[in-house]
Amino acid sequence: MNVSSPSQNGSLSSSRDSNNDAVIKNVIVIALGLIINYINGTLIHTFRKHQILYANPRYVLFIHLVINDMIHLTTAITLLFSSYILEKINGTLCCIILSFAVFTTMNSPLNLAVMALQCYITICFPLRHSEICTMKRTYIVIAWIWAMSSMAILPDICLVVAMDYGKLFLSTIYCERDNLLRHPVSKQKRDVLYSIYLVAVWIVLFYTYLHIFFAAKAARSDGDMKKARNTILLHGFQLLLCILTYVYHVIVRLLVYLFPRNYRDAIFVSYIFIQMLPRLVSPIVYGVRDQLFRQKLKKHLFCGFCFKTRLAGF
């Protein structure tokens, strides 16, 4: 059986594992994916039920992140199934799945950087917040995020079509980025582009969170200081995990070098921590910890429980 040793952007590189190891790894990935998608689905349903949430740019950006994570996990699980059941799939279908995997992988850090900017404006420029952070601008920023993410793969797809590799779209291949995008230019572009995005996101995060911390310090309130510090630490941990996706291919190469005998297990663990764990942390950091969203979520869950209880009574 071909094991799914996760590789860049949620794709899975083919290698050999024992049947027991393969089953365990598949069960872990699928179970985590279903749990996270269920939690995110509950958050989306709560968001849709309350106008005060979907009329606020902060929550629109958050729910865009949640939807993006659901798409990412779905594509990752799809690639997992295809690698085990079908092994090879049509090149066109692989291109579509990988495109969504790359889009959503790139979207998360960019979306988090925009959310950090929005939080910075809210705290440091409260009087101008409603003027700067409008709903129209929020949707424009979301479109900009997708446009920036498209630069990571659309030029490569065009290059594949233009070169002899275009025949891959009509053949069956093992669905992995390096199998589809074989041209050396694609790999070089990926490394350069990811480096630029990594530096840009880090600059935004350091700038905004330092200003948020200093603003809380200037308020001279121990409670505000502690809250700001805890918020920055939690957001920083989650953002660090997401930003690691930009250097995931480097981490994979390093793990193969350091653990030549057990590299499959090492890559699998890194996949869980870098690709899946941030999708579990996001709902907690940006949703459940938010007072307004937590209040609406509790109300929604309580109403759902009461409804089920009434149905059980008939």
What does the model show?
This protein is mainly alpha-helical. Strand 1 and strand 2 (12-16) form a beta hairpin. Mean pLDDT is 77; it is low at 1-14 and 304-314. It contains 13 helices and four strands. 79% of the residues lie in helices and 4% in strands. The strands form two sheets. A two-stranded antiparallel sheet has the order 1-2. A two-stranded antiparallel ribbon has the order 3-4. The radius of gyration is 21 Å and the shape is globular.
Task: Give the strand line-up of the largest sheet.
Answer: 1-2
Q: Roughly how many Å is the radius of gyration?
A: 21 Å
Average per-residue pLDDT, rounded, comes to: 77
Give the termini separation.
Answer: 49 Å
Short recap of the structure:
The chain is mainly alpha-helical.
SSE layout:
Layout: E1 2-6, E2 12-16, H1 19-49, H2 51-54, H3 57-86, E3 89-90, H4 91-124, H5 129-132, H6 135-150, H7 154-162, E4 172-173, H8 177-180, H9 184-218, H10 222-243, H11 248-258, H12 263-288, H13 291-313
Antiparallel strand pairs: 1-2, 3-4
Helix pairs in contact: 1-3, 1-12, 1-13, 3-4, 3-12, 4-6, 4-9, 9-10, 10-12, 11-12
Salient structural properties:
13 helices, 314 residues, two-stranded antiparallel ribbon, mainly alpha, 4 strands
